[in-house]
Design brief:
Distance between the termini: 7 Å
Oligomer: single chain
Shape: globular
Helix content: 55-70%
Strand content: under 5%
Number of domains: 1
Largest sheet: none
Radius of gyration: 18 Å
Order of helices and strands: HHHHHH
């Protein structure tokens, strides 16, 4: 992606760690939660690979096609999974955003050359609005809720199980997606 190398490395590290945590979470979940964790792991690793600074690693010109194929297959899987779980809407939007970014980076010189004179493309703006709303909504769910006086204290679950960690991973990947879209 475009931008300073330091922020590219930090973005790559954030996405890789998030993807790794989602793999660990996937091993401990079943059913729809396992599928969601798998989709989030794929998204984390895909975003990490896309965030590697271009000055460091020169990839062949066809590598963006590979991104589009992988995330196209993941988008089809997410669309199919919508039958049972509405959380897959977010996975579908994320996969489509990755396909869009891959297509945009496949342009001449890896730039958004076709949109340079038109300003920010409408689809980029729509994705920025979606991911901003998603991050804010998920972030608000992370905010602590005061417990009423006399209510029993809730014990903390084990390291791999807290739903707050899964939500924090979703927030971090949403922020990373925003950063990638803004530098597109």
């Amino acid at each position: 992606m475009h931008g300073p190398m330091t922020s590219g490395w930090l973005l790559m590290a954030l996405c890789a760690v998030t993807g790794a945590y989602c793999l660990v979470r996937m091993r401990r979940c079943t059913g729809d939660a396992r599928e969601a964790a798998g989709g989030e792991a794929l998204m984390g690793f895909g975003m990490a690979a896309m965030a590697v600074p271009a000055a460091v690693l020169t990839l062949p010109s066809w590598h963006w096609v590979l991104y589009a194929v992988v995330f196209g297959a993941a988008a089809l899987r997410a669309a199919w999974a919508l039958r049972t779980c509405r959380h897959h809407v977010h996975h579908l939007v994320g996969c489509l955003a990755m396909i869009y970014m891959a297509a945009a980076m496949a342009g001449p010189g890896g730039t958004h050359a076709s949109h340079a004179s038109a300003g920010v493309p409408l689809l980029t703006a729509a994705l920025v609005v979606y991911f901003t709303a998603y991050v804010l909504r998920a972030g608000l769910r992370l905010a602590p809720v005061p417990t009423p006086a006399g209510a029993p204290a809730v014990s903390a679950p084990s390291w791999g199980a807290p739903p707050e960690m899964a939500l924090a991973c979703r927030v971090s990947m949403g922020v990373a997606m925003l950063a990638m879209l803004l530098t597109l």
